[in-house]
Amino acid sequence: MSKTIVVLGTQWGDEGKGKITNYLSEKADYVVRYQGGDNAGHTICFENKTYKLHLLPSGVFNPKVVNILGNGMVVNVRNFLKEIANLKEMGFSCQNLFISDRAQVLFDYHIKLDGLQEQSLGDGKIGTTNKGIGPAYTDKVSRSGIRFSDFINPSFPELFFKKVKEKNLQLSLYQAEKFDYNKLLEEYQKIAEEIRPYVIDSVTMLNEALDEGKKILFEGAQGTLLDIDFGTYPFVTSSNCSAGGVATGTGIGPNKIKEIIGVVKAYNTRVGSGAFVTEFEDDISRQIRKVGNEYGTTTKRPRRIGWFDGVIVNYSRMVNGLTGLAVTLLDVLTGLKTIKVCTGYELNGKILNSVPASIKDFESCRPIYEELPGWDQDITQVKNFEELPENAQRYLNRIEEITKVPVIIFSVGPDQKQTVIRKKLF
Ligand code: GDP
Ligand code: IMO
Ligand code: MG
C-alpha cells in the first residue's frame, strides 16, 4: 500500500484541497506543504465548526500528526505566529509543527512591493492575493532571499541591512515610503526568537520518516493552472503547485511519490485575472456562487464561475501524473436541469484537447460542450457511490471518461463527514 500521497489542485485553486487533506490526515503521520505561502486559504469543517488555514498544513488539528512547512514555501512569519495563536485560542495544541530551515522568509517589504507592482500594471494586473508572494519568490530566484536558517542566525542583521537598503531603493522607484531599518530589525529579531523552536532540517526529518515507512501526505496550494510553468502565464502564482514541486519543495526523491490525487471542483472557479474558457455569468452561475459559497477564503473576492473543463483537468493529469481524482462540491450542482461539461476547445477552426502555452491563444479558445442531465435529490448525506442518483453517477463516470483518471473520492458537502472514499489509500 502506498505510503506517500500528494493532494493537489487541478484547476485554478480552491478545489477543496484543505478538506481532502484534512480527511486523509486522520491516518497520516506527516502532512507537508511544499510551495506557496499565505496566498492559500484552505477551509476545513468538522464538529460543526469551520476553520481557515493559510500557512499551516491541514493536519494541524490532529496532535498525532507532524506538520511541516517545506523548503519550497515562502513564509510570512508574522502571520505564521498569528495563525498558531488563533488555533491555540480555539484549543488546538499546534505541537509537532515545523518550518524547513531552507524555506524563505516573507517580509513586510514583499507585501508592499506586491501592492505597488499590481498598481503599476493597471488593467493588466494579475489580481494577486497581495500577500507578497511574487516578490518573495523573486528574491529567492535572484539568490538574495533570506532563509530560515539565516533568519535565526546571529549574522541576520548584516544580511537584513543589505536587503532593506536594496528594497528601499526599489520603493523609491515607486515614490513610496521607505522602511526604517532599525525599527524593522528590532521587530524581526523578536519574531526570530519566537520562530527558532519551529525551525528544523526538514529534508533529513522527512527522508528518515520515509525510511521508517511513515505515512506522508503532501498538501498542494493553488492549482495546476496557477503553476508558474504550467499555468495560464502570466496570470499565475510564482511557485510550482504541480506534482513536480513536491520533490523540489520538500527534498524527497521524485521516485518516493506513490499516489497523486487531483482535487477537482465539480464545476470550475477562478479568482484574480486571466482568461477562463468555460466562464459564464447568468442566473445559474449566481446560484452556484451562492450555494457553493464561492467567495475567496483569503481575499473574500467573489469567485468567477464556469462549467467543468475537461481540457484543463486532462492537462492536469499529464502534468501531474494523476493517479486518482477527488471530485468536490458535487452537491452544489443539485437542482440543475442540465449540466454542461467542456470536452474540447475550438481555436481558429482547430480542435484542441490540451491547454495552449500562449495566453493570447488561450483567450481565443471557445468551449465545446456536451450537456448531461441533472438531478434533484439531496445528495448531502450520501455514503457511497450507489446511493447517488443515477444522473450524478453518470456525471462522475463521464468525468472519469473525459479525464482518464478514476474518481477515488467524492465530496457532497463541506463537512469532513460528507466525503466518500472508493479506494483504500493509507
Ligand atoms: P482549497 O483552497 O482548495 O482548500 O479550497 P477552499 O477552502 O478555498 O474552497 C473550497 C470551499 O468549498 C470551502 O468553502 C469548503 O468548505 C467548501 N467545500 C469543500 N468541499 C465541499 C463540498 O463537497 N460541498 C460543498 N458544498 N462545499 C465544499
Ligand atoms: P488555494 O491554496 C485561488 C491566485 C490569485 C491570482 C494569482 C496570483 O486556496 O487554492 P499570488 O498572490 O499567488 O501572487 O496571486 O493566483 N491565487 C489563488 N487562487 N486559490 C489560491 O490558493 C490562490 N493563491 C493565489 O488570485 O490570480
Ligand atoms: Mg482556497
Termini Cα gap? 7 Å
The main β sheet shows up as: 10 strands, mixed
Structural class determined from secondary elements: alpha/beta
**CATH-defined architecture of the largest domain:** 3-Layer(aba) Sandwich
Tell me the Rg in angstroms.
21 Å
Per DSSP E runs of 2 or more residues, the count of β-strands stands at: 20
Strand order of the largest sheet: 9-7-5-2-10-1-11-15-19-20
How would you name the CATH homologous superfamily of the largest domain? Adenylosuccinate Synthetase, subunit A, domain 1
CATH topology of the largest domain: Adenylosuccinate Synthetase, Chain A, domain 1
What's the rounded overall pLDDT mean? 97
Bound molecules: guanosine-5'-diphosphate, 6-O-phosphoryl inosine monophosphate, magnesium ion
Tally of alpha and pi helices = 13
Helix proportion range: 25-40%
Shape: globular
Q: Approximately how much beta-strand content do the residues carry?
A: 15-25%
Outline the low-pLDDT stretches: none
Top CATH class of the largest domain? Alpha Beta
Topology:
Elements: E1 4-9, H1 17-25, E2 30-33, E3 42-46, E4 49-53, E5 66-69, E6 74-76, H2 77-89, E7 97-100, E8 104-106, H3 108-121, H4 133-141, H5 148-151, H6 156-173, H7 181-195, E9 199-200, H8 202-211, E10 216-219, H9 244-250, E11 259-265, E12 268-270, H10 283-291, E13 304-306, E14 308-309, H11 310-320, E15 324-328, E16 338-347, E17 350-352, H12 359-364, E18 366-373, H13 390-403, E19 407-411, E20 419-421
Parallel strand pairs: 1-10, 1-11, 2-5, 2-10, 5-7, 6-8, 7-9, 11-15, 14-16, 15-19
Antiparallel strand pairs: 3-4, 12-13, 16-17, 16-18, 19-20
